[in-house]
Amino acid sequence: MIRDITLGQYYQAESWIHRLDPRLKIIATLVYIAALFVVDDFLGFIIAAVVLGVVIAVSKVPLKFILRGLKPIFLIILFTFVLNLFMVQGKVLVHVWIFSITEEGLRMAVFMAARLILLIIGSSLLTLTTKPISLTDGIEALLSPFRRIGVPAHELAMMMTIALRFIPTLLEETDKIMKAQQARGADFESGNMLRRAKSLIPILVPLFISAFRIAQELAMAMEARCYRGGKHRSRMNGMKFVGRDLVATVLLAAFLAMMIAERIVL
């Protein structure tokens, strides 16, 4: 299950989405997330799902690889679905003992599950189609206007990107530690959920040690290369807003207008 987490990973491919300006992709992701929280009917979710499906197809990232990232959070989605299903008051459809399923609860449960799934897939596409260094440059460029009020744009962008980049690295380290302990007789599969959770506690100490070691090695590598961030940092390939980015901007504006019109009209 650890290997199923795709957040923070980059999928190498030659696609139109991969070549887009990272600043535009970050803005598009934020707009898409905001649109998901504005949607309150089935038509809006269908439009959002269709648009996301088209982007996935154009990105050339395998759908199976993207859906694999939903496995680790399946329990969270299920818990959210059940919580909304039984806790929302309204017109009762089914009543069993002390539990009641209402029409409003069923609608809310479906909406929340769909919102979480689309949110995770949409967010994963940003890291799957954007290299870490490009993501850093894009975040820094978007935060640079706030430097006038003292916001450390470069430092924030670097920390966010390193955090995302460390996710697959730490997952790989966790997998190695689990395999090493399983070879020594550790059991992570049998027993109920509480027992399985307790069996994971011995993994935390070597994982923390490994995380600090990786962080130290990264800091030493950056110092050895005389890394200096902020305004003193130069770039070999600067970000340029070209024709394909303009087309993508128009499509993003059309999607946003469509979602607003759907909300207002319906």
TrEMBL record:
Pfam families the record matches: CbiQ (PF02361)
Membrane disposition: Multi-pass membrane protein
Signal sequence bounds: none
Gene Ontology CC terms: plasma membrane
Transmembrane annotation, as ranges: 30-58, 70-88, 108-128, 200-220, 241-261
Cell compartment(s), UniProt: Cell membrane
Assigned keywords, A-Z: Cell membrane, Membrane, Transmembrane, Transmembrane helix, Transport
Record's keyword annotation contains Plastid: no
MF annotations from Gene Ontology: transmembrane transporter activity
Its biological purpose: Transmembrane (T) component of an energy-coupling factor (ECF) ABC-transporter complex. Unlike classic ABC transporters this ECF transporter provides the energy necessary to transport a number of different substrates.
Family named by the database record: Belongs to the energy-coupling factor EcfT family.
Subunit structure: Forms a stable energy-coupling factor (ECF) transporter complex composed of 2 membrane-embedded substrate-binding proteins (S component), 2 ATP-binding proteins (A component) and 2 transmembrane proteins (T component).
UniProt-listed PANTHER family: SLL0384 PROTEIN
Record protein name field: Energy-coupling factor transporter transmembrane protein EcfT
Species in which this protein is naturally found: Zhenpiania hominis
Classification lineage: Bacteria, Bacillati, Bacillota, Clostridia, Peptostreptococcales
Gene name of this polypeptide: ecfT
